[in-house]
């Protein structure tokens, strides 16, 4: 019988409607019904189902006829009370239904229909198993696993996606039962039914797919159960992974004897299984699978026999030769893995050498034979073969490789293959980086090889360098013709590839470099000839302009490639290894590049007429900037004194006899990149050029010696005096870009200029000259704000927007007290009124954000730069100004001010200064104006806010006389919700934990001290408050007089005035002691706040996998100690809400949480509780738990 009153026919109709709905409403209705009849008992699913059921329309209510109200509130059918019962119904569905719609999932994503083809029942079973597997008994677990295996065996002809989904379910069950149930571990033996004598190919294929699914599932990590799943993975690795791999290898051997065409699917499945086995995370590092540079495969020592036997490599190479694509590509992937086996696996050097030489011998046979060459004509095989070579060299040492008797033949064939590969860039461009990786690693360790091997490798590198260079020239031609995508578009990938090329070329640098110089000279001569043709026949009607344009474009793109190549070669220089001959070659190449730059500058007036491509202009100038960058890293700086040969040649040809002259040339040459042509079609490329040029300037100004050189250059002096040139379009505030790098150009520009300006010590006069343009602009704005200028409001806004970005960049580079003092003296108080006025006029504009970001930088005391004389009021004045700006929209300004330690806040209260109180009042008002949801949703806003709250609770909150209740409620709600928020970045959560811990610590300590004071006062009353009686029962007069004095009694003229003064003071102290702190009063009157926070922290610890458990445990202890009654009540409810067979285990874990914990917040007590939390979290991770209530529904009291 199906769930509740749902018969099989109706169920199949619902499944059909679910995956082929006529409209979205009907799909939601049917989904609610299926959730009701097939519940998963998961918290998220149940809440979703309940929400859907409570919001159904009238038509849905009709569809749910027969379901009573109690069942609706329960969220699932009354006939299903446990996950096991729900699993049984899913099993019956699989056994009974014949409708294909019950085995298909239909998804709608962005309006496009996507067939996911995952069975409904299988998906539901997977959810139940994943969340509630531990509630099943051992026999139930085995029964479910056996059922799934039987279902797969009995339905071999169903669609492939059905087998895949069932195999994944079988794998999940096997994984979850692996540790507890020994029966689950005989995996290879249990699937032998698919390989029994007479089994068809389809059964064998399904068996292999089952093994692959289990292996893949075992290697899948989990954030929630990381420790448990890793333990399972390690056990599977040690017990079954090797037998699975050996079984796959033996099955692969036997498949070679099968001639049936259907065997291709079996072979494909075997190769996928073998790849999955060797991709297993053997040591728990979880490398990024998208990266090819993940090191060697760390197979355990127990695998040694597999790889030391020659049969392993023999069968792989035989399969590769026999299989056709795409199976041959999968085999080559396995060979690539075989070439990555760790060196230390082998039992001896001899066995390792046999293995290495076997791979090398097969490589020779492949590259020499016609069959092998034909195989490599397939793009997939070619690419994987290149990967195999790269991994082989990355795993094994060059000395081992060189010991191969046919090493010279092998390296020669690989060199020829590489040359062909370089020229196959159109066909397989992504393979070239692997070939370069192979050769760069060969060259990097060449010193460890024998001299004869070194010479042989170096001779090959010369040919490779030439071949690669020729291929780049061909690529430039093809890119202009539009045949391929231009590699120059991605400078990052390009430079990374050229770094490897430079390593190869510098191996035999004089020969390789000379070829580069010759090629460059030939192209430069051709470029010069085309320019002369243009200039001499500019007005000639016979001049074919379009042909000239195309020829110029091709030559310039080829020269651009060569500039990038030369830059990489110069940047690859290693100072302690470089010889004078190599430095001379660098100088030769640099001289040719400078000649090309000079030629471009001489032709700059007419060039735009003949270079119609804005991209070409960007590529050329970017290559020149990259050349400057690499030259600077090698020959400008601390090592420049050792580069005499370079500057000797550059001095003879270009007058650049030293680093200073070269810096001057760089600045002069690249300064034009900051100017705009005014052509809107070139705007995007020019913006990118500005970004790269400013990046170069920043690097030039970063070095200690180079920035001092730049400071003295005429070009730099002119730039400092005219830094706001109208030619620099990026300084125009109306120029906007969606690219954040472009948007930051102004700040980067002035950060660089600030670093250059302050490179010398005595710069007072230069500073005042530098800020003069800003003064003129701000003075004009002051007049405009007063109504004495013709500037419009929009013009004022744009001017201020630009200037505050400039000021922010300028201040960001200030690093010491003297520099900051100069800027402070200029800016404050002359121009701070502009800040306030601008905020008042444009509070919600980007100008307000720009001002606040500037002020945040201005108020930041990094490197202790905000330090004033002890007699100076500037620190307090700086804080007082912050109250008007920082807290309005950007809380980080206030947190910087409160934590900057340049203002003594005790002075404010002492002298009646209300600046701090006013700041906090504005802070509360602004905080309340922002919804809590927005406060925690925007990362930057949340970080600034919770940083401020952490500072506030640490130093200022408890010192206030009171706080507005709405502000307090808001703070506590925000603290709770940000802790509850699931976010990989736990910085805000940790800040909230810190703030709550400080509040709990204060309140708990106050209550403990108050109890001690009350106990002391009560003891004093008992000892002094009652008169002592004499033997007759009447008061003793002398004792009575003493008590009265203490109470302030006695006759007025008894001479006890001193005693009365002491008594009054004592009474005042006792009265002050009896006054409860306002924060304690608030929390005692609103205990639901503590209850809410306690629930939040408890559920986060119990249900979520966080990286900041230490931070979470600190406030949780305080919350428990402050609210012990509720904690007991809540944990009892928590235990009772679990499934019956799990309650005892949960109760034990809850009891252990407070084991050995005392009623205090000492460090020892805290540390013990943190250990208990870790243990509690580990226990919870082993179980699937149910929450008491949704925490988000319990914070209405705030």
Automatic annotation (TrEMBL):
Residues 477-737 form the Exportin-7/Ran-binding protein 17 TPR repeats domain. GO terms for molecular function: nuclear export signal receptor activity. InterPro entries: ARM-like (IPR011989), ARM-type_fold (IPR016024), TPR_XPO7/RBP17 (IPR057947), XPO4/7-like (IPR044189). GO terms for biological process: protein export from nucleus. Its main location: cytoplasm. Residues 1047-1058 have a biased composition (Gly residues). It is found in: Cytoplasm; Nucleus. Keywords: Cytoplasm, Nucleus, Protein transport, Transport. Residues 1023-1044 have a biased composition (Polar residues). The keyword Cytoplasm applies. The keyword Cytoplasm applies. GO terms for cellular component: cytoplasm; nuclear pore. Residues 1023-1067 are annotated as: Disordered. Belongs to the exportin family. PANTHER family: EXPORTIN 4,7-RELATED, EXPORTIN-7 ISOFORM X1. This is Exportin 7. It comes from Entomortierella chlamydospora. The lineage of its organism: Eukaryota, Fungi, Fungi incertae sedis, Mucoromycota, Mortierellomycotina. The gene is XPO7_1.
């Amino acid at each position: 019988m199906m769930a509740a009153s749902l018969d099989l026919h109706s169920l199949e109709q619902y499944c059909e409607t679910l995956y082929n709905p006529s409209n979205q409403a009907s799909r939601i209705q049917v989904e609610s019904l299926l959730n009701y009849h097939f519940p998963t008992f998961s918290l998220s699913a149940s809440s979703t189902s309940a929400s859907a059921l409570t919001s159904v329309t009238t038509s849905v209510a009709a569809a749910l006829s027969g379901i009573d109200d109690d069942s609706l509130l329960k969220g699932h059918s009354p006939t299903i009370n446990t996950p096991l019962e729900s699993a049984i119904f899913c099993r019956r569905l699989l056994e009974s239904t014949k409708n294909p719609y019950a085995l298909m999932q239909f998804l709608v994503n962005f309006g496009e229909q996507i067939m996911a083809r995952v069975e409904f029942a299988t998906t539901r079973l997977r959810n139940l198993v994943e969340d509630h597997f531990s509630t099943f008994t051992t026999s139930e677990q085995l029964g479910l696993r056996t059922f799934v295996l039987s279902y797969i065996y009995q339905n071999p002809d169903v669609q492939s996606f059905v087998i895949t989904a069932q195999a994944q379910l079988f794998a999940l069950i096997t994984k979850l039962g692996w540790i507890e149930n020994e029966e689950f571990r005989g995996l290879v033996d249990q699937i032998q039914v698919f390989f029994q004598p007479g089994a068809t190919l389809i059964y064998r294929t399904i068996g292999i797919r089952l093994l692959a699914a289990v292996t893949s599932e075992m290697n899948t990590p989990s954030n929630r159960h990381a420790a448990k799943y890793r333990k399972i993975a390690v056990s599977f690795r040690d017990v079954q992974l090797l037998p699975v791999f050996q079984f796959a290898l033996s099955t692969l051997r036997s498949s070679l004897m099968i001639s049936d065409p259907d065997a291709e699917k079996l072979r494909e499945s075997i190769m996928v299984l073998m790849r999955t086995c060797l991709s297993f995370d053997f040591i728990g590092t979880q490398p990024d699978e998208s990266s090819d540079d993940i090191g060697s495969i760390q197979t355990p020592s127990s695998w040694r026999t597999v790889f030391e036997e020659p049969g392993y490599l023999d069968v792989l190479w035989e399969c590769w030769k026999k299989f056709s694509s795409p199976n041959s590509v999968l085999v080559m992937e396995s060979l690539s893995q075989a070439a990555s086996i760790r060196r230390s696996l082998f039992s001896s050097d001899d066995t390792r050498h046999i293995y290495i030489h076997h791979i090398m011998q097969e490589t020779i046979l492949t590259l020499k034979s016609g069959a092998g060459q034909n195989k490599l004509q397939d793009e997939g095989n070619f690419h994987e073969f290149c990967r195999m070579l790269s991994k082989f060299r990355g795993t094994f040492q060059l000395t081992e490789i060189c010991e191969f008797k046919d090493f010279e033949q092998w390296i020669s064939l690989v060199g020829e293959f590489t040359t062909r590969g370089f020229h196959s860039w159109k066909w397989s461009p992504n393979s070239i980086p692997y070939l370069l990786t192979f050769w760069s690693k060969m060259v990097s360790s060449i010193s460890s090889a024998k001299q004869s091997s070194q010479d042989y490798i170096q001779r090959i590198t010369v040919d490779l360098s030439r071949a690669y260079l020729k291929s780049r020239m061909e690529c430039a031609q093809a890119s202009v013709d539009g045949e391929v995508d231009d590699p120059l578009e991605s400078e990052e990938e390009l430079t990374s590839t050229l770094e490897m090329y430079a390593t190869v070329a510098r191996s035999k640098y004089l020969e390789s470099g000379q070829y580069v110089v010759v090629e460059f000279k030939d192209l430069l001569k051709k470029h010069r000839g085309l320019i002369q043709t243009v200039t001499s026949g500019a007005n000639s009607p016979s001049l074919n302009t379009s042909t000239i344009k195309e020829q110029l474009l091709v030559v310039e793109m080829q020269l651009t490639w060569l500039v990038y190549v030369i830059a990489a070669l110069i940047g690859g220089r290693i100072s302690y290894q470089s010889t004078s001959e190599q430095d001379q070659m660098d100088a030769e190449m640099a001289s040719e590049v400078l000649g090309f730059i000079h030629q471009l500058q001489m032709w700059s007036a007419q060039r735009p007429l003949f270079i119609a491509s804005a991209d070409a202009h960007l590529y050329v100038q970017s290559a020149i900037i990259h050349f400057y960058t690499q030259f600077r890293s090698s020959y400008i700086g601390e090592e420049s004194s050792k580069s005499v040969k370079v500057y000797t040649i550059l001095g003879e040809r270009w007058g650049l006899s030293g680093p200073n002259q070269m810096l001057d040339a760089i600045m002069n040459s690249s300064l034009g990149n900051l100017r705009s042509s005014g052509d809107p079609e070139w705007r995007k490329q020019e913006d990118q050029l500005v970004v790269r040029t400013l990046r170069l300037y920043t690097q030039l100004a970063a070095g200690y010696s180079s920035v001092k050189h730049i400071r003295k250059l005429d070009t730099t002096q002119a730039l400092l005096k005219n830094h706001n040139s109208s030619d620099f379009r990026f300084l125009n505030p109306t120029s906007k870009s969606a690219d954040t790098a472009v948007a930051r150009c102004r700040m980067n520009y002035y950060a660089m200029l600030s670093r250059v300006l302050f490179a010398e010590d005595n710069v007072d006069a230069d500073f005042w000259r530098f800020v003069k343009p800003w003064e003129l602009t701000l003075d004009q704005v002051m007049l405009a704000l007063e109504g004495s200028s013709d500037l419009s409001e929009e013009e004022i806004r744009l001017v201020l927007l630009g200037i505050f970005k400039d000021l922010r960049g300028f201040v960001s580079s200030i690093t010491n007290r003297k520099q900051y003092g100069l800027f402070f003296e200029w800016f404050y108080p002359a121009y701070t009124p502009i800040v306030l006025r601008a905020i008042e006029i444009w509070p919600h504009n980007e100008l307000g954000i720009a001002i606040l970001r500037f002020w945040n930088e201005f108020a930041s005391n990094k490197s202790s730069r905000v330090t004033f004389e002890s007699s100076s009021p500037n620190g307090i004045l700086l804080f007082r100004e912050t109250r008007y700006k920082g807290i309005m929209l950007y809380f980080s300004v206030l947190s910087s001010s409160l934590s900057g330690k340049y203002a003594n806040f005790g002075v404010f209260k002492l002298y009646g200064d209300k600046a701090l109180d006013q700041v906090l009042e504005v802070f509360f008002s602004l905080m309340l104006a922002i919804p809590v949801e927005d406060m925690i949703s925007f990362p930057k806003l949340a970080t600034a806010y919770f940083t401020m709250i952490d500072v506030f609770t640490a130093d200022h909150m408890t010192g206030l006389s009171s706080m507005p209740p709405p502000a307090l409620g808001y703070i506590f709600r925000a603290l709770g919700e940000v802790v509850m928020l699931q976010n990989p970045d736990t910085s805000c959560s940790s800040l909230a934990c810190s703030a709550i811990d400080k509040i709990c610590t204060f309140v708990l300590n106050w209550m403990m001290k108050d109890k001690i004071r009350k106990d002391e006062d009560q003891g004093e009353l008992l000892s002094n408050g009652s008169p002592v009686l004499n033997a007759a029962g009447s008061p003793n007069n002398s004792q009575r007089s003493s008590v009265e004095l203490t109470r302030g009694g006695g006759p007025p003229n008894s001479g006890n005035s001193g005693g009365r003064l002491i008594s009054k003071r004592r009474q005042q102290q006792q009265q002050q002691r009896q006054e409860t702190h306002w924060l304690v009063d608030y929390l005692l009157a609103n205990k639901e706040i503590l209850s809410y926070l306690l629930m939040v922290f408890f559920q986060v610890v119990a249900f979520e996998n966080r990286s900041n458990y230490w931070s979470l445990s600190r406030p949780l202890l305080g919350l428990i100690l402050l609210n012990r009654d509720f904690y007991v009540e809540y944990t009892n409810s928590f235990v009772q809400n679990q499934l019956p067979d799990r309650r005892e285990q949960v109760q034990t874990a809850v009891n252990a949480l407070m084991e050995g914990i005392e009623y205090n917040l000492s460090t020892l007590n805290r540390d013990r509780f943190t250990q208990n939390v870790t243990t509690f979290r580990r226990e919870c991770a082993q179980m699937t738990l149910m929450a008491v209530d949704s925490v988000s529904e319990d914070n209405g009291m705030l």
